[in-house]
Amino acid sequence: METGAGDSNEVIGGTDASTPAVEVRTLADLARVAGVSAGTVSRALAGKALVNAETRERIQTLARHYGFRPNQMASKLRSRRTGVIGVVIPLGHEKRQSISDPFFLTLLGHLADQLTESGYDLMLSRAIPDGTSDWLERITGSGMVDGVLVIGQSDQSGIIDQVAANYRPLVVWGNYREGQVHCVVGTDNEMGGRLAAEHLIASGAKRLAFLGDTTGIEIDMRHRGAASAAKAAGLPLAHIPINLATTEMGPQIKAALAMPDIDYDGFVCASDLIAMSALRVLYETGRAVPDDAQVVGFDDLPMAAQTMPPLTTIRQEIAGGARVMVENLKARIEGESTDSLAMPPSLIVRRTTRA
Amino acid sequence: METGAGDSNEVIGGTDASTPAVEVRTLADLARVAGVSAGTVSRALAGKALVNAETRERIQTLARHYGFRPNQMASKLRSRRTGVIGVVIPLGHEKRQSISDPFFLTLLGHLADQLTESGYDLMLSRAIPDGTSDWLERITGSGMVDGVLVIGQSDQSGIIDQVAANYRPLVVWGNYREGQVHCVVGTDNEMGGRLAAEHLIASGAKRLAFLGDTTGIEIDMRHRGAASAAKAAGLPLAHIPINLATTEMGPQIKAALAMPDIDYDGFVCASDLIAMSALRVLYETGRAVPDDAQVVGFDDLPMAAQTMPPLTTIRQEIAGGARVMVENLKARIEGESTDSLAMPPSLIVRRTTRA
DNA sequence: TTGAAAGCGCTAACAC
DNA sequence: GTGTTAGCGCTTTCAA
Q1: Do B143 and A72 count as a contact with CB atoms less than 8 A apart?
Q2: How many alpha carbons lie under 13 Å from residue B199 in its C-beta half-sphere?
């Protein structure tokens, strides 16, 4: 017998189209209502050509009417295509448990835009490396994603290489290094560091300091670039590691500047954030920028244009980088191979250097 | 016969445990290798108690050895629990296509932390509302997520309410409003706006202006709060809408300040970012802060402490808010109901006001 | 053009 | 404790 007792109550409600009487939760439900088979509904909803235009129309209308949405889990399982890209931020050497680097967050925003554009969903994971490759393989091997994007190599380059050997659809934001297996997109950090130091030197700085922790390869390369420029000019370059994890950086910078016998007059900063902090400390200790000391940042985030004075900095192409990452990932998902890319950064001269 | 031709090459390599000869891709494969049934493997890997400790150990070792990871799609489909939370950012009235608001990005970072902590994965969607509830229902109805977090109501409060009526595990960051159906967590924006204006007034400001676009409810409430404080003091409050979408905001602020006969001496800004821009314009037009004009921001992002002078601002509890959002969502997933929460903001006095 | 049937890989009753 | 059996809800041959 077809007469379910439960239906009668709902029917009393009348003709209100917004609360259909029967619940349509699965393809089979909708098929029953439409008087066709589940297969046909599937084809109709997918907009496939092999189904009668009229039937398709009718089924789509019905689906809309019942507010039916196919279960993605089932669909993905069956079709073996998830339409999801995993995005991982390894917290690496920075021990703090939080995703808060504004550069990474901005890159993430752009990646989200690009992926959405390409019809992919984005699954975000925060990973805390533990010496094994587990943090990455948990994502690549989950069957949940068609590909993986890693934001920042941190100090995990070797482990990423290892995973990339067996997992093709993987693209990383970071610093390319000779012999590296995985596909990386990023800025030529060494060149960036060099540009910064050269500009400082050309503007008359004599006692240079690099502000930033060099555990991660990106920052390390920026330091190397700055060091090579300093060396070429026969100038010293002090290295002041800034620990972003434990405390505020203001006090750390202040402590470094309080060193008795050194009075730096040129600062290469590993990020705009550090530069901003340096500006503050310089101001508080009564040193005028750019007259007494000059400062160059790195990233060119929106905030760089708003500091006082506006920050001279090294610009990384975030939006362009995100686009290339997604393009490369799509190519790799298609089985193609892609080259790594080190984009040349550019010097943006504002007012914290004497141009 | 077990001697697949393809295997011989690998075996030549010798005893290298890292490249097993047979491929173990499914539970069934591993079950075969272990000489048990798929059910047992499933239980062993899930760490269930009902399986012999020894067998469990052996199976887990085997799984590790073969680098086997269960397919999540299948698991989630079967168990009807996805372990994924959808996070949606409606781009709403801001027509720009990009997720770039630093406040939202920061909140996102904290949500990612909290969700990871609770064992959930995070699926990020950028949504562009189109007048229907489709942008949200696409997520809630996908079968891909156990719950949904919406970052910012924008001007979609009504639509969110509509969806929330039929979808319980939904929590929104935004501004609570009387009679609202959906569970919202956020700052008491009206109070924040009031606090800002009152402080300005107490510090001697007489010609107030509110900087920010009030299409979204959050900002609108901040404006109302400021307006009520101004009214109580018998002072005027000009409203200068800042369009974050089309152009840089610097020029817009500059244009507003160039108005012939008004010389504002107190600015309530809808965000720290706007405040930072205002500071810059004030500086460029030769007005001293806080002597000639005072400025109060909103959010208290890290950058607020680094502006010059350091920004007086209204602090929103981002980390705490993220925690409550996730807690509430978990409760709702468990079928409980939760109340909305409007957290009182606090005034952080720095140097852009005359205390 | 449509229907029927066979799974995708896993989990959860239910037996033994 | 462990194996067996039935699906989760969908897509996709294969026939008709």
Answers
A1: yes
A2: 27
- Between the CA of B136 and the C1' of D9, what is the distance in angstroms? 22
Q: pLDDT at position B226, please?
A: 98
* Cis geometry, peptide bond prior to residue A290 (ω within 30 degrees of 0): yes
Q: Testing the interface with B: which of A18, A72, A163 to mutate, by most B Cβ within 10 A?
A: A72
Which tokens hold the place of B151? 């970052």
* pLDDT for the residue A2: 35
With CA atoms as reference, the chain A residue closest to B128 would be A116
Residues (pLDDT < 70) of chain A are 1-21, 92-97, 245-247, 260-261
Whether residues B109 and A106 touch (CB distance < 8 A) is answered with no
Residue in the structure block whose two tokens are 């010609």 = B207
pLDDT value at residue A187:
98
Instruction: Give me Rg for the CA atoms of chain A.
Output: 28
Q: Which nucleotide is nearest to B75 (CA to C1')?
A: C10
pLDDT attached to residue A171: 98
CB B209 within 8 A of CB B221: no
**What totals of helices (H) and strands (E) does chain B contain, helices first?**
13, 12
pLDDT in tens, B18-65: 556 688 999 999 999 999 999 999 999 998 888 899 999 999 999 999
Paired residues of B186 in beta bridges: B342
**B143 contacts A74? CB cut-off 8 A:** yes
The pTM (predicted TM-score) of the whole model is 0.89
Whole-angstrom distance, CA of residue B332 vs CA of residue B326:
10
Cα-Cα-Cα-Cα torsion B231, B158, B114, B83, nearest 10 degrees, comes to 180
Residues of chain B contacting A307 with CB distance shorter than 8 Å: 306-308
Q: How far is the CA of B78 from the C1' of D7 (A)?
A: 8
Domains and CATH numbers, chain B: 1-70 (1.10.260), 84-187+318-343 (3.40.50.2300), 189-316 (3.40.50.2300)
Residue B342 above 90 pLDDT?
yes
Residue keyed to tokens 């920050």? A311
Give the separation between CA A235 and CA B53, rounded to whole angstroms: 65
Mutate which of A300, A303, A311, A326 to test chain B, going by most B C-beta atoms within 10 A? A303
Contact A273, A280 (CB under 8 A): no
Kindly tell me the burial class for residue B144, based on how many C-beta atoms sit within 10 Å of its own C-beta (0-12, 13-18, 19 or more): buried
- CB-based contact A99 B113, cutoff 8 Å: yes
pLDDT at B249: 78
Whether B306 sits inside 8 A of A279 (CB atoms) is: yes
What number is the average pLDDT over the span B3-16?
A: 34
Q: What would the two tokens of residue A238 be?
A: 């002090």
Q: Which residues from B are below 8 Å from A276, CB to CB?
A: 303, 306
Q: What is the pLDDT of residue A195?
A: 98
For strand D, give the nucleotides within 7 A of a protein CB.
Answer: 1-5, 7-13
Q: Which pLDDT tens digit goes with each residue over A6-62?
A: 333 333 333 444 556 688 999 999 999 999 999 999 999 998 888 999 999 999 999
Q: Residue A95 class from Cβ within 10 Å (0-12 exposed, 13-18 middle, 19+ buried)?
A: exposed
Q: Is a pLDDT exceeding 60 seen at residue B288? A: yes
Interface test with A, best of B23, B27, B65, B73 (most A CBs within 10 A): B73
